[in-house]
Known about the structure:
Layout: H1 4-31, E1 39-44, H2 48-61, E2 65-70, H3 73-81, E3 87-90, E4 97-100, H4 106-123, E5 128-131, H5 144-166, H6 172-197, H7 205-230, H8 234-244, H9 246-249, H10 261-267, H11 271-284, H12 290-330, H13 342-363
Parallel strand pairs: 1-2, 1-3, 4-5
Antiparallel strand pairs: 3-4
Amino acid sequence: MRSPALRHVLTHLITPLLMCIGMGLAYMGAFVTPEPHHMPVAVVGTTPQAKVFAQTVKDTAGDKLDVRTVADRADAVGLLKSREVTGAYVPSAKSPELLVASAASDMGATAVEKVFTPVAARQGVPLKVTDVAEPVADDPTGQGLFFLLIALSIGSYASVAAIGAAGSALPMRVRALFALGVSAVVSAIGALLAGPVFRLAHHDLAGVWGMAWLYSAGILLVGTGLHTFLKRWTTLAMMVLFVMLNFTSSGGLFRPELQNGFFGTLHAFWNGAGFVEGVRSLLYFGGDGLSRNVWTLLVWLLLGLAVTGVAALYERPRHARHAAGTTATAAPGAHPAPHPTAGEADARTAAEEAEEETEETVGV
């Protein structure tokens, strides 16, 4: 291609076009056709009739449902509050009841209601639906936490361009400290949104802020470290890691039992799922399962520290060259060099890349 300017433009179009493909595949693959996949439900009762009923439901649903029986209603409520089942059906000839916990997943509660409503209809009786864990009135669908996740994610991965590109001349330890500081600001904004502004969290706001900080710090450290190796491709990598794979597997809209196996598997260890499920545990389920989700966020934070540590070791020779070039230029009586030193060339290249990456990130 003869025109350098045209080649430059076409090269920079690669990132948004790959994002278009990736976002389409991820979001449409995860959200367009939600269907139960081994969705856990319970039937209350240990009589032969209850066991036959449970087996009939299982045979009819196939792989869509995993059906178990429990001794009584209290056991069913306990399973719902520990999020081991999505719904529990209490058979009755006159007033069958379906127990759900919509705070765990409004979509899951709706899906299980669609399963058991026809069962009651065949008996000619109405189905009573009891919600044992409702979200707060300020977040009636329980999806506010998903949108909080989006705000935290954008604030975190977009800041990587500023720290990694504009601050590329700074030592990695300084950039890592910037990442930790920015994560504190991002998480504070998240706490304000979750608390006073939209009232998603009516209690334990400090715990929400703590998990938001762990989540944001992990993203910022991973991105800051990756920038050393990926440069302007860091934006695309961050979008893949913390948007395409992250939002779709977080459980904020559909829990894993309503998604295919790929996103359901990611839900078990991805950081977005750790944040959403951890905040749900704290706000609605008495801290049940909280420690596991906090550990998920801690592992991602440790991963970020490891990536920045490797990047610091990789950058050490470049910073040594830069320091040597600066010293040579500033030496008393030194004649102006006819060509830029290695350190000056590195600095000039870094500045050009930083400007290009910042423009590209803002454009995206």
